[in-house]
Design a protein that fits this description.
Distance between the termini of chain B: 41 Å
Radius of gyration of chain B: 13 Å
Structural class of chain B: mainly beta
Number of strands of chain A: 11
Shape of chain A: globular
Largest sheet of chain B: 6 strands, mixed
Structural class of chain A: mainly beta
Shape of chain B: globular
Radius of gyration of chain A: 13 Å
Helix content of chain A: under 10%
Helix content of chain B: under 10%
Oligomer: heterodimer
Number of strands of chain B: 12
Strand content of chain B: over 45%
Largest sheet of chain A: 7 strands, mixed
């Protein structure tokens, strides 16, 4: 079956702009989470969505937001980009019910802010 | 709050040698534990997971890990390293209090010498 698909793979934006990243989870998976990966801070949790509702949120400023659609696809948005937002953004999906058995990750979107 | 410590940001072994990557965690309730591998410019691939069943967990590519509650450890091992094992490895924890949020260790880069 198809894996987690993230688009685009690479993105270059200018400081102050906004960006939207997209994630299509594995078919049947209803939970989608987003993580930011940087060399300095490592992997950090952004938020999790389940059935179109944000279920959990990490410690990021309000410039970072997300949403989930009825087909479980998710988008995350970063407004007023800063240089420090340059990172690999990873999306992950899981069934989202019962015992947590881990996530399947996408290949990520590499965002560079200049 | 959960936390994960991976001892050794870089580990170097010879091809054919034992691989041992260390992970210690803290969790106030029984944890779920995971090892993920990341190849360059890729997302995270699940190697194995512990979700309160058998304490010795076998994963893909010949890797295994043992959950030791008394030591709060979940070290990853492989009897014989292969060149293709060179990658970055991440240990992660979640628990019932954290919902489906993963807390990652800082990662260990494994280098395999011919």
């Amino acid at each position: 079956k198809a894996g987690v698909t993230q688009t685009p793979r690479y993105l270059i934006k200018t400081r102050g702009q906004q960006v939207t990243l997209s994630c299509s989870p594995i078919s049947g998976h209803r939970s989608v989470s987003w993580y930011q990966q940087t060399p300095g801070q490592g992997l950090q949790f952004l938020f999790e969505y389940f059935s179109e509702t944000q279920r959990n949120k990490g410690n990021f400023p309000g410039r970072f937001s997300g949403r989930q659609f009825s087909n479980s696809r998710s988008e995350m948005n970063v407004s007023t980009l800063e240089l420090g937002d340059s990172a690999l953004y990873l999306c992950a999906s899981s069934l989202g019910q019962g015992i947590f058995d881990g996530y399947t990750f996408g290949s990520g979107t590499r965002l560079t802010v200049v | 709050a959960q936390s994960v410590t991976q001892l050794g940001s870089h580990v170097s072994v010879s091809e054919g040698a034992l691989v041992l990557l260390r992970c210690n965690y803290s969790s106030s309730v029984p944890p779920y534990l995971f090892w993920y591998v990341q190849y360059p410019n890729q997302g995270l691939q699940l190697l194995l997971k512990y979700t309160s069943a058998a304490t010795l967990v076998k994963g893909i590519n010949g890797f295994e890990a043992e959950f030791k509650k008394s030591e709060t450890s979940f070290h990853l091992t492989k009897p014989s390293a292969h060149m293709s094992d060179a990658a970055e490895y991440f240990c992660a924890v979640s628990d019932a209090n954290a919902g489906n949020m993963l807390t990652f260790g800082g990662g260990t880069r494994l280098m395999v010498k011919p």
